[in-house]
Amino acid sequence: MAAVWQCQAVTSTSTGAVRQGSLRQLNLAVVLRRIATADRPPSRAEIAADTGLTRATVSAVVDDLIAGRLVAEAEPAPRTGAGRPARGLLLAGDGPAGLGLEVNVDYLAACVVDLTGAVRHHVVRRADLRPVSPADALDRLARLAAEARAAAVREGLTLAGATLAVPGLVGADGLVRLAPNLGWRDVAVPALLAGHPLVEPVDGIPPLVVENEANLAALGELHAGPPGSASFLHVSGEIGIGAGIVLDGVLYRGVRGWSGEIGHIPVHPTGRPCRCGGQGCLERYAGQEAILTAAGLAGADLPADTAAARLADLAAAGDPATLTALADAGTALGVAVAGVVNLLDLDTVVLGGGYAPLARWLRPPVDAELSRRVLTAAWSPVTVRPAALGARSAAVGGAASVVRRIVDRPAGWLARSG
Amino acid sequence: MAAVWQCQAVTSTSTGAVRQGSLRQLNLAVVLRRIATADRPPSRAEIAADTGLTRATVSAVVDDLIAGRLVAEAEPAPRTGAGRPARGLLLAGDGPAGLGLEVNVDYLAACVVDLTGAVRHHVVRRADLRPVSPADALDRLARLAAEARAAAVREGLTLAGATLAVPGLVGADGLVRLAPNLGWRDVAVPALLAGHPLVEPVDGIPPLVVENEANLAALGELHAGPPGSASFLHVSGEIGIGAGIVLDGVLYRGVRGWSGEIGHIPVHPTGRPCRCGGQGCLERYAGQEAILTAAGLAGADLPADTAAARLADLAAAGDPATLTALADAGTALGVAVAGVVNLLDLDTVVLGGGYAPLARWLRPPVDAELSRRVLTAAWSPVTVRPAALGARSAAVGGAASVVRRIVDRPAGWLARSG
């Protein structure tokens, strides 16, 4: 016997009285989730058996989901016996989609992910945004978003929500408190983007969510990475170093949404001064600038992903300075990650962003520090692996998070399209 | 309008069919939780209004809860108008209770917490357990537990479950994988305690849970600390240093239950060698032995809490070596905690265990490192405070966790007593 928990929304009024929320909303969500998490397209009868709903209810709910372009029927299964074969149900690839956006130090990105999780559009535009004002950077981003929207419309998709990744600390209401490497402080992103409608408004789906880039990169990895990794630390190595912590499939955001600043874990407390005002922060030993400097490429002013590719080329060619630089960075990273694993007891560490193409050289020193410093390493090793999506993970993670909201609460979307 | 979620257990059989779980179980839990979380004893009518259940249902459920000694009626309120005053309902102080046990390096402890959260019995017995075999240590603990049980029975309480705190890594099924400062490795605690029935068996309440001491100390703080601190880092400074992480009122246990090893965060990666095989671990700079050595008390072989009291006396008297030792320990602790706060974005750090009586001297250097090293410190300071319970927190936290299980699932207890 397996116990499951079914949750039911109940709306409580200010007078303290309670009324049952719409049963239809609950049934829509239960049936859609069953379809979304299936190994193979389930039939209406299978959904009824698994959820405890009657077959008539399931049929009515499925009709609504198909009419709303959330669900489609699979090709009929081959006849295996008497009667008409049952048609399997799957998520629709021509309904709502999520828009993922990213502003980073040296590029802008926009991507579209449909309900099935497929990336339908993805554009990255190089641009050094450090000398550009936030308003101008967001104007450029809005143009990229408009292109993505047009591409989505051409494919029959409707953008139902957008998520913007920013390499910084994001407060409530999308205020970017601090993005040190972009030079942003207290930038009210939603206000600056207000003149650019990004998506169709859908009840229950926020039109724009602004989120830390490393957090969204971790969600991108959850979306695209190997199945079964529901708890992991995702470390994005760029000019700054950010981490996303996923626990049981859910992003851990911290008390104020500011978790993941792994770049400012002190690894040599009396060591190099850091921009943040601290001293000996990981970023000063394993950030991209530190690696480039140690490899003799200081001042080359390469875009972040070009820099990673260049370092990978040099390391593959056996350049001694680059190999030493990567070994030292990996050791510093391993020291910080060992502390994290001792504290949080995670069994998987994903090297993402600019670290992904360098994982071949970073992994051995990281592994060495973990073996040496993690109390439980002897009987329960930690897996260190490169990210599935690399530097493009944040935009995909943002778009996927929109899609997940629609699957969790389909009623808002159906009210719009119905 | 405030939205709440009501959860309902549904039991799924292996055939895939689903039947509705007992509505009575759900109603018992909903009503008991309403009573447990109330600011003042609510009446049956208030519970009906708040939960959406009918008054007849609430009355029947409350009758069951009173008969099962989970709920009691408060003294009648003074008459304020016409009619009989409604009687408020509160948790019963004469029904089930939790047994909290602790084995530590130099003491054993047992305590009893009743359903209202009151500590009804608490005994600590000094003993250096390092030279003692695990079996002998657990035999002594069982005698302490039997005394606690007799005391509970004399007060009309029934022990419904026990939780044992151990300063080490605990695996599934209560196997202590490693408790370095006790010298335990792969100790099967439940098997060794099998000859000593600790509690009355109750359906749904595990008779014995073995858990890391620092984790339970954090739960003790959640239970006894100021209201409103639902997310915090609790650091227990003993011979080892352990941390408990509470997120939104729930203990974070890690992927394998081994979280919280803050003592092995590297603070000086090329520094002092550590027992764990690593180098420069926090424990070597801020653990009790390091502080005693720096204060000129090395080899004094004081029991852990005596040592903390002795250090506090010396510091209060202005002993320069002790003040320097505490300042240096606080700085090392601040470096490690700054990394944790950067990573997890917590706003409260509780100094527990042996750190509690030393908090007056440890806090300033910890605060200084946090101000300097936490990226968000400028606009969102972190509160550092001593634990409410100090070194006795783990046993209380363990007993309180039993009580919480009963409140969450009262049906098992009622089936036993009914």
From TrEMBL, chains A, B:
Protein name, UniProt field: Sugar kinase of the NBD/HSP70 family, may contain an N-terminal HTH domain
UniProt xrefs under CDD domains: ASKHA_ATPase_ROK_BsXylR-like (cd24076)
Matches recorded under Pfam families: HTH_IclR, ROK
Keyword Kinase: yes
Annotated transmembrane regions: none
Domain HTH iclR-type residues, every copy: 31-72
Entry similarity comment: Belongs to the ROK (NagC/XylR) family.
Keywords on record: Kinase, Transferase
MF annotations from Gene Ontology: kinase activity
InterPro entries: ATPase_NBD, ROK, Tscrpt_reg_IclR_N, WH-like_DNA-bd_sf, WH_DNA-bd_sf
Organism domain of life: Bacteria
